[in-house]
Amino acid sequence: MKNYLFIAVAITYSLCSISVYAQQKNNKTKKDSLKKVRIAAIPIVNYNPSQGFLFGAMGQGFYKLNKKDTISPSSSTGIFAMYTTNNTYFTALFQHLYFDEDKWRGTFAAGFGQINFQFWQQLPIDGGSFIDFSTDARFVLARMERKIYKEIYFGLEGTVSNAKTEYDLPDYFPDSLRYDERNMNNIGILLNFDRREHQMNPYSGFNLAFKNRIYASWLNSGNDFNKVEITYNHYYRLKNDRNILATRFKTTIASGDVPFQGESIIGQDDIRGYTSGKHRNNQVYALQAEYRWRFYKKFGMVGFAGVASAVDQAGDLFKSEWLPGAGVGFRYMMLPSERINIGFDVAAGKDDWGLYFRIGESFGR
After folding, report:
1. pTM for the whole structure
2. Which alpha helices (DSSP H) does the chain contain, by range?
3. Which residue, 76, 126, 308, 330, has fewest beta-carbon neighbours within 10 Å?
4. pLDDT per residue as tens digits for the range 37-46
């Protein structure tokens, strides 16, 4: 297994080197500051025990909506596509807009695919075991935020989503429990106190974000419940811009008639190192820190560690299992004018691990 992983990483970064070389060559003929669109792209080769090998690509273009606007961050348009050897596939398009001297921010996204995954379930006969499931999903999201006072933004968002799920349950379960189709439409309100000095890769500052999504029958959603997210990121410049400490706290709290699709899962940025889908519940709490070190010109490394817990209700938090996760990563600053890094992270959790390729830094969501 280690040999396969080494080959996958080597192939991926050989391809990345070609992409980086093309970008650097283009910079020699035209200064980056004068380019209308700056491109960052990375192929993806990955492996995890739950979904097998993953092959895909991410690409993102960065540009200014108004060249005279020197305050707004660069807007971007991106695409993501992937396929795994367990027949999972997903494609998504996304758009981030910043305009009117950063008084307005907009996000639009759409995607579709089939996700073959698993979850952990306590069964009456077998005890605990993994249950495989397959979900056909599609979604469209729109979000708009407006600066209402200094660095405070207020926003509204809406999502139209549909999921068809088939569970691979043991024979003693009735057929009525094997299939589920439901809409997950929602509207939400957002508040964001954003004092980061850069959107994509901050070296200092913080942002405190609150989001409340409402799922309701009057929105043609299959269940009536609320989902609250609270995120606090803080960035500390240590000595200089090449040594940054980033800290993050995030909690997701769902209440009401929460379906399986509405639960939160420990993994990805909160906390890296968990890919099996075993740890999920109505509420997830995660705390972590990451040290970012650019050790030579455009090359850098990161080291990170944290803990997370998934519980049914807040009262279970201090008697539940806390799950540690830690790892390291490699970075290459592909677009210095935008502080855009590409790279990968390797992380280990309790009885699990993960490999993550990325454009941009963690804690960006």
Report:
1. 0.84
2. 2-29
3. 126
4. 999 888 888 8
